[in-house]
Ras-GEF domain-containing protein
Amino acid sequence: MPIGALVAEGNADALRAFLAENAQDEATLNQQSTSDGKTPLHVAASTSLECVEVLLAQPSIKVDSQDSTGSTPLHLAAAASELGIVKRLIEAGGNVRAVNVHGNRPIDYAKSTEVHAYLTEQMAATPVPPQRKSSHLIELEAELPQEIESLRALCIDLIVSQSVFQARCKETIRQLIEEKHVALHKNRLLEQAAGIQDKETSERFIDQLHYFQDQNEKQANTIAYLETSIQLFEYAAAQQDEYYRKNMTDLTKQHNEQLQAIFRRNAETEKAFLAYQTAHSEDLAELARLRIEVESGTKSKSGTAKGAAGSLETALQAEVHTMRKDMATLVAEKLTLEERLKLNEKLKAMSEAENVTLRDDMGKLRKLMQEEVVKQMHAAREEQDEMDESSGNILFNRGEGGQKRLKGGAPEKLLERLMDPTVHDHHYQQTILLTHTMFISTKQLLDSIIAKYREVAADKSDEMRLESPILLRIINLLKFWIEHHWADFADDPALKDTLESFIKESFEDGKMGSGLRIAFAEKVVKESALDMAPSTAPKPILPKALAKRYSMDSGSSSTMSNRTTLLMGMNIIPMERPNPWTPFGGKSKVSEGSEEIKLKLLDFEPLELARQLTLMEFELFKAIRSREYLDLAWMKETKETEAPNILRMTRWSNHVVQWIVTEIVSVKDTVKSRAAAFERVVMLGQALSKLRNFNGVKEIVAALQTASVYRLKKTKEAIGSKYMRTYDELVRLVSSELNYKNMRAKIRDADPPLIPFPGLYQGDLVFLDTCQKNKLEGGSLINYHKLESIARSLMELEAYQQVSYPLEPVPEIQEYIRSYQLLDDDQAYNASLLCEPKAS
C-alpha cells in the first residue's frame, strides 16, 4: 500500500511496519501528489501526530518541503490548530518564518491562541542577528572629536581631500582613456597590417594560432623523446667504452712486456758479442808482439829456444782458431736474434692490424649492445609507466609516433622518477628541484632521498654499491641539488645539518660519494667567504663636491684590500659579511669626521647614478629565492615570511618611483629648471637601459607617468625634442602591450649581467595559476605541465642572478638615493599643483 494512503488513514502502526520492511529513498518519502503537490508529511501534519513522528524518524524526510502554494507542513499544522504537531515540526528544524506564494507565514494561519502564542514565542526566540561593526569602525568612532567646531574642521579637511582625490581620479581616468584610444588605434593598425578585416578573418587567424601551438607542443614532445634517447645512448656507450678500454689496456700491457723481454735478450747478446770481440783483439795483439820478438831474436839462440818459440806459436794459432770458431758461433747467434727481432716486429705489425680490426668489431659490438641496453631500459621504463598509468598514479600526453610527455603524477611517483636511473631527463630534475615545495616540503624531499639510499644500500657491499645505478643516481642528484640550489640548505640550518650528517655517515671513507663530499665542502666554505670585487670595474664618475674628498689613487688599493678574501694555502679566512644594501661590502673612502655635503639630482652624472642604482637593485634581485615565486607567495597573507625578498624589491621600486616624482615636483622656481630635472631623469632611464637594468627603466617610466608628473604640460613643452624621443623609446620598451613584447625581446637578446622586471615574470605566474590548477581532474595527480612551465621562468631568473655587475660602489650616492626624504602621493600632487596650477 502507498505511503500516502497509510498516512491518510492515520494508521501509524501500519506505516511504521511498512517503512521498516521497505527501505524508501528520499524521492519516495517526499513524493508530491499530482493534484495539490502535498507530500505525506503535509497530510500527516493536519491529521496525526503519530504519523508525523514516524515520518520525521526517517533521515531523508524534508521538513520544509513546499506544496503547489508554497506552504510547508508547518503552515498546515498551524491552520489545523495542532499544537503538538507544530512543536514537533519546529523541533525537527521547521522554519517558522517560511513564506508561501501568498506572502503568509505559519503564524498567519494560526486560529488557536495557544498555537499563535507558541509561534510568536519561537519567532521572538530566534531574532535576526544585528550587523556587527568592524573594529576599524569602532576605533574611528572613538577618535572622532566631540566638539562641533572640531567636527566642522574635520569635515572641511575631508571635503578638500575629497576634491583633491576626485581631481586626481579625473586626471588618471583621462590619462587611461587617452592610453586606451592610443592602444585601440594601434590595435586597428596592427589588424590592418595583418590583413584582419572582419570577424571571420580574425577567427581564422586564431584557428591558425591554435594549430601552430598544437604543432609546437607536438614538436616539443618529439624533442623530449629524442633527448631521452640520446641520453640513454650516451650512458650505454660510456659503460661499453670503459669496458673495452680496460681490455685494450690489458692487451697493450702484455704486448709491451713481451717486447721488453725480447729487447733485453738482444741487448745481452750484443754485450756478449762485444766482449768476445774485445778478447779476440787483445789475443791478436799479443800474438803479433810475440812474432816480432821471435823474428828479432838473435840467431845464436839455441835450438831449444827455437823449439820453444815454435811450440808457443802453435799454441797461439790453436787459440786463435778456437776464438774464430767462437766468433762464428756468436755471429750465427746474432743473425738468429736479428731474425727473431724481425719476426717479432712482423708479429707486432700483425697484432696492430688485428687491434684495428678488433676496434672496428668492438665499435660494431658496442653499437649493438647500446641498442640492446637502450631497448631493455626503455622496455623496463615503459612497462613501469604502463602499470602506473593503468593504476591511475601517472598520466601522459602522447604525440605523433607514440611519443610520451609527462602530464601529471602522484607525488610519490614524481619522486620515484626523480631517483630512477633509467629516466635521463635533466629538465625534469631541474623542474622538480625548483618547484617541489608546491606538493612536498624540502625536508620531506630530502628525507625521501636519504631513505631511498639507505633502503637500497642496506644489504650491499662497497663493491656492489659502486655498481648500483640507483645509488649513483641518488648521489649525482644530491650533488646537483647542492651545486645549483644551495639556497634550500643555506636558508635552513636544520636541513643542512641533516644533509651533512648523511654525507658523513654514508661517504666518510672510500671512493663513493667523493664528488658529493667535495661539492658540500665547497659550498660551506663559499658561504662564509666574500666574493672578490671585480678588477675590471670602471672608474666612478663623482660630483665635484665628492671628488675633492676622494683620493682616487690611494683609496682604490685600500678599498680593494677591504673587500678581498684572504687565501692562505687551502684555508680561507672569511671577511666581515657585507651590509645587505652595500653590494660588495666596500667602505666609504671619505675620511671620518668630514662635514656633510648636500647633493642634488643635477649634481650627479646620469651614468654613475644609474650604476649605483643598478648595484643596489641587483643585490635585491639576487637575494630573491626561487621558492618565493611559487604558489603566488607574494600575494598571500603570509607573504612577509614566505616572500620577504620579493616584497623588499617591490617596496624599493615604490621608493625609487616616489624619489623621482619628488625630485621633479620639488623644483618650483622655474619651468626651465623643472624641465632640466625631467631631462636628467630621462637620461637616467637611458643609462639604465644601456646597463640592461630593465626594472630600473620600468621605475623611471612609472614615475614619469604618475598623475603628479604627467599633468605638467608646460614642463613637457620646455623639454628638448631629443629627450622626448628618448622618453618615448623608454615608454615603448616597458610598455605592457602584447604582454610586454618589446621588453621580452630586449631581455631575450641581452647578455648578463642584467636585471629583468620581476613583475613580468610574476604576471606570467599569475596567468599560469589562473589557467592551470595544481592538480589534475580528480585531485590526486600533480599537474606536472604547470610545474614545468613555472620552472622555465624560474630557471631564466636564476640564470640572470648568477652574473654580477663589475661596478664600483659609491656609498655616498647610494645613501643619497636610499635616504631621500619622499613626498607621499597627496603631497606630491599638491606640489604639482603649486608648480602648474589648474587652468581656471
